[in-house]
Fold this sequence. Notes:
alpha/beta, Rossmann fold, CBS-domain, 2 domains, four-stranded mixed beta sheet, 12 strands
Amino acid sequence: xxxxxxxxxxxxxxxxxxxxxxxxxxxxxxxxxxxxxxxxxxxxxxxxxxxxxxxxxxxxxxxxxxxxxxxxxxxxxxxxxxxxxxxxxxxxxxxxxxxxxxxxxxxxxxxxxxxxxxxxxxxxxxxxxxxxxxxxxxxxxxxxxxxxxxxxxxxxxxxxxxxxxxxxxxxxxxxxxxxxxxxxxxxxxxxxxxxxxxxxxxxxxxxxxxxxxxxxxxxxxxxxxxxxxxxxxxxxxxxxxxxxxxxxxxxxxxxxxxxxxxxxxxxxxxxxxxxxxxxxxxxxxxxxxxxxxxxxxxxxxxxxxxxxxxxxxxxxxxxxxxxxxxxxx
Length: 329
């Protein structure tokens, strides 16, 4: 570990360095955007047409970037995984199959550890997309699609630390992933399938994932005496009861507000006489976050979930606490 001087400079030089580094990399990203052309479009088409997966590979810092690119592709609807080039030479080439597309990253285009995986793609007719910053390099000459990164100085100032080059490669990977997902019309609902956990997964949870159904549903018929309706409210524990007509369609809901408004002679009334007609409902395929917004807007704590086929039959009930427990709010 290098020694640290006891006489550290004031913070301003550190900030100047940070701004210079970010400025250099920002300029490089602009160059990259301007330089993209037919080869980028060809790479997207090759991946879209491939029946297999995208195999991302790279050594050193390019490998670290490659892992992130593979993860981004896989989480946005393009099956992908990372194969370490050194491990590929010791058996992991078996993870690469006909129908796959190899996305190989190397700043110089001459990384010796990539020789075996490049040769393997050529031998078995596997599509190869090469990304490098040196025109005429071995990787770009061998590739079916060659993407040349523009010449831009590394942000370290000495040219020896991969900084600008890795930032451009990472941005290129993001550009590929987004181009692919937009073509495939990848939606937040699709995204949730690959991200079932965490805050983002919770925000993309569907109502049907969180709702209560079956015997848990607090439902009574229109002609039900309020004495029985009160028992259902108490037993089910949601503080509300839904009211259904002869066809089973949800036609009303009884809340504590309805009970207070009909306090005088309540037990002499039926559910139909007390209920609020036309209750706000939601479908099981709606996002739970949308349900929370609806409950907040209406200042209610429960939503009945109805059959999306249009029959208005109650198939579930969602309480705000269910959303809280799932991390939706």
